[in-house]
Amino acid sequence: MSTPVVTRFAPSPTGFLHIGGARTALFNWLYAKRHGGKMLLRIEDTDRERSTQAAVDAIIDGLSWLGLTWEGEPISQFQRAARHAEVARQLVAAGKAYYCYCTPDELNEMRETAKANGLPPRYDGRWRDRDPSEAPAGVKPSVRIKAPLNGETVIEDAVQGTVTFPNKDLDDFIILRSDGTPTYMHAVVVDDHDMGVTQIIRGDDHLTNTARQKIIYDALGWDMPKVAHIPLIHGPDGAKLSKRHGALGVEAYRAMGYLPVALRNYLVRLGWAHGDAEILSTDEMIALFDLEGIGRSPSRFDFGKLENLNGHYIRQTPDDELVDHVVALLDHIPEGAALKAKLDAGKKAQLAAAMPGLKERAKTLLELIDNAGFLFASRPLSPDDKAAALLDAAGKTALADLLPRLGALPDWSAAATEEVVRAYAAETGLKLGKVAQPLRAAATGRTTSPPIFDVLAVLGRDEALGRIGDALAG
Predict the structure, then answer these.
(1) What pLDDT sits at residue 434?
(2) What gap in Å lies between CA 196 and CA 39, rounded to an integer?
(3) CATH class of 79-230
(4) Which positions in this protein are listed as binding ATP (predicted)?
(5) In the annotation, is 243 catalytic?
(6) Domain spanning 385-473 has what CATH number?
(7) Closest CA to 68 of 42, 41, 97
């Protein structure tokens, strides 16, 4: 019987959940789902000075919004410090690690000597074989692993292939600091082992860490999980992803009006491919995701592609569901509170009725909200400059002629208003646009909107006729 698959996402709570971390979480989640396993969430909060509860909350909120779930409660690495120290002492007792009594001055001297000789800083192993009885008084020791002095440490990686590290480059690094706290390198090994992690998927900037962690695994006689190191995300120009490219927190993408399903689809295609498939449902991603499909080259973040994909998902999303997304987004944008105050049951119904026209033109929920602005506008409207230009003498003449005809309609619908407007245009010899555009300017205050007859139907007879009357009086 095969061992159940266990992956983990292990962010440091020193800031928001950035887009690279979100993709790592997605890959771990998909791999676990594909193999009927589970993903665990571990908060690597051993850096007490930089770790904050606000960052923990932001990470959990970002994962939840993306729809990435984990098994059980999030695990705090810091709360397991006693276990990490216990394992370090076991390694000392087994002769696989040792107490180092070097003072900060001695370590600085080592670094300076190496630097002067053009060498990378390395610990020189001076306490590796000394008896602790030689320890100077008053110095609290750290614990260092006994790294192999010769040969190579070899990592078999599902993405990078066989990666070899000369052991001369991997010194006797610290696993337990002199204050008794574990280093990241050591804590990760103990946690992954105790949590039963079978597959590690993380950024390729961790490859050297993996070599060092393998030394700890070997010293403990534990099997190391399988590893897959994925290339980092770059900007469109090929440079390392920065804030100007889109290295923002997941909450920023939510506030920009992206749908979770679109961001998931976009992220899975950043560095992983299945043929030429661009649009994949979550179920398809789970069914298809494999480590073999991950490339070795960095992927490039492209806002244009993300917007187009988001537009696709907006068009595919049922209208009532889109209304729910809009309502949820209002809590995360500056003008949201004012709009939410106006969003009673009647306005929600209007918004749902307007969705077929709104979603055809929007690539983000922010665009959709902006295009729905006519629903929330108070009379009399303040048309923008382009719309005001349409309300000239010719435009107002058309509106004045149309107002009684529209007011006489026995039933108010998009089809009925369109029939009246087309008949008027034919009767006067005007092109339809010469009539419909002033009507749009009067009803919405803008020159662009969903189809004007849909707008009139959604606004309702009284509101639509009132706005036309206001435009004539203005």
Answers:
(1) 95
(2) 11
(3) alpha beta
(4) 243
(5) yes
(6) 1.10.10.350
(7) 41
